[in-house]
Write a structure and sequence with these properties.
140 residues; Nuclear Transport Factor 2, Chain: A; isomerase activity; globular; isomerase; alpha+beta; 6-stranded mixed sheet
Length: 140
């Protein structure tokens, strides 16, 4: 008799909808400088990575480490927006392509000055378990 369980590599539409909602909630909170809102969809042991030019330049583990970094980052920009341009869904991952725009609030070591606009394109990969985001990798 064939098994009634579905193939685990096939994305169930309900999972995709839930994962999209979690990602949208996170990005909306990010754009609003709402750290508590950013934390809400995250797993207690969330892992965050930032990858620039192929090099991982920041790795955080746990909601508390993420909160501390997110609060510190609030001072960096007077405006910021991540706008999703493309969604890719797989079994336990969502990859979003992003247009990122911001206005620097401070002078940065790389030469960016307070008031300067910043425009980037990149992607973020979100992984999930137990109805929460367990991993975020920002790639630019």
């Amino acid at each position: 008799m064939p098994s009634a369980t579905s193939n685990p590599t096939v994305m169930h539409p309900d999972n995709a909808a839930q994962q999209k909602q979690l990602v949208e909630s996170y990005i909306e909170a990010y754009n609003s400088f709402d750290v508590a809102g950013m934390l809400q969809p995250l797993h207690e042991e969330v892992v965050f990575r930032n990858v620039t030019n192929g090099e991982t330049d920041l790795t955080l583990t746990g909601k508390e480490s993420f909160r501390q970094q997110a609060e510190q980052a609030l001072q960096y920009f007077s405006q910021r927006e991540q706008r999703v341009t493309d969604w890719q869904f797989s079994a336990d991952k969502v990859e979003v392509r992003l247009d990122y725009s911001a206005v620097a609030a401070i002078d940065f070591p790389n030469g960016l000055k307070a008031g300067d606009p910043l425009q980037l394109q990149g992607k973020s990969v979100f992984e999930f378990a137990d109805g929460q985001i367990t991993s975020i990798t920002d790639i630019s």
